[in-house]
Amino acid sequence: MLTLSPSLIEPVTGGLLCGINVDGGPTPEQMLVLRAIVSHLWGRSDLDLRSVAPINAEELAAVLPDIETRTMFHELHLTLEACRHPQSSAQVAAVQSFAEVLETDGDDLEIFRDLIEAGVDAAKRDYNRFLSNNMRQRSEVLLPSETSGTERSNVDFAGRLSALTECGPGSLGRAYLSFYERFGISLPGPNFSTDDLFFVAHDMTHTIAGISVTPEGEIALSAFQFAMNNNATNRAALLASLIAHEAGFAVPSHLSRGQTGLLGDPAAAELFGRELRRGSECLSDFSLVNHFDLAPLQLSEVREKFGVSPPVDPTDGHHWW
Description:
Blueprint: H1 6-19, H2 28-41, H3 57-63, H4 67-82, H5 89-102, H6 107-117, H7 120-137, H8 151-163, H9 172-183, H10 194-209, H11 215-228, H12 232-247, H13 266-280, H14 291-294, H15 299-306
């Protein structure tokens, strides 16, 4: 979770301001996203960013002793890095510098560094290697015997999906099927693949969170997951979403094209901030559980179990409730 003690909100904000103060200063989009983070995630809509003193990496390190908070800062810094268009060597160097001082590391450093130093093709190769491993980590949780890729595995997986039709009205299983119908998405299968396991977990998370499949919704969902549990898997999910839907220089095979600068839209930035807040309020992470075991339960029961609060505006086009 991404909660901060009140005494750390201004120093972390000051560090982020310093970390995007390159090439003549933060861009309007970066400031828009930072304001959404501060207002929604940390509940400080009263904080005037113009009054916050930027602090450098060494000063920030002195007040952030634990690695979890430092990692959270790095991921938020990365988010703001992805929101600079065009990307610049100064911005990449600033993220690298803060990461070194705070002793954090991640695949994002290599991806964005190669984008600047070696070009888009090199960054895409980095991203594709990263995405391949990340999709395995974010796949549906099943018993080891069911993930062996054998013919029996195909049958078991198809059988589990087919059994969702037997779930009662109002259940998670029925809601999952309705989610696919609503957005015209084909059910995974019928042949088993590791990609199918990824999409089951991903779309079950969409269903429980109530977040739509718009590009803005995809970024918001990854923010929600990151705020639920600041672990390596969810941090990777945020990075993957930002690269595909915000930075736009590498596109997964299931998408027809990338997006650039989506969070420059005030509504999208607000959505991002609100979903960070909703994710941080969850009681535990439901993105990597066995969703088939939860499928017979009422969706409302599943949401209550994990502390999923309703969206502020479920009719805004970015939610599915």
